[in-house]
């Protein structure tokens, strides 16, 4: 299941974070990082998915 979440995180980083932790601090932080730059959003999303 983590492989699917990582693939989703590469395409849509906030969705990958949402599937892992729901709406919370990491979700909103990921939206901000994705808006500031797509690559930081991807890195953060993968970090959240691997960490939990």
From TrEMBL:
A GO CC term assigned to this protein in UniProt: membrane
Primary localization class, coarse: membrane
TM ranges: 7-25, 31-50
Localization annotation: Membrane
Keyword Cytoplasm appears in the UniProt entry: no
UniProt xrefs under Pfam families: Pmp3 (PF01679)
Keyword Membrane attached: yes
Keyword vocabulary terms for this entry: Membrane, Transmembrane, Transmembrane helix
InterPro entries registered for this protein in UniProt: PMP3
Family as reported in the entry's similarity comment: Belongs to the UPF0057 (PMP3) family.
Protein name listed in UniProt: YqaE/Pmp3 family membrane protein
Organism: Methylobrevis albus
């Amino acid at each position: 299941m983590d492989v699917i979440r990582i693939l989703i995180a590469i395409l849509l980083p906030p969705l990958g974070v949402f599937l892992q932790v729901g709406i919370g601090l990491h979700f909103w932080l990921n939206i901000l990082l994705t808006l500031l730059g797509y690559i930081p959003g991807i890195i953060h999303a993968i970090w959240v998915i691997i960490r939990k």
